[in-house]
Amino acid sequence: MRVKCVLCDTIHTLDDLSAIAKKLRNRPIHTYMCDPCHERITNKTNDRKATGNFILYRSPAKENEW
Question: In a 3-state reduction of DSSP, which class is residue 48?
């Protein structure tokens, strides 16, 4: 399966039987990101977290009555 990275627009080939290929085929809303781009974003996010100016907005956890 040929896929294109959403950030760097490079084309990669994936094994047709791999889990990520199956996920991309069955759920078209999911996008592919190559490993170098994924690592770069992870490193930059960790650097932003280390500065202390990073705020992660999450909805408050609600208690389930059951």
Answer: helix
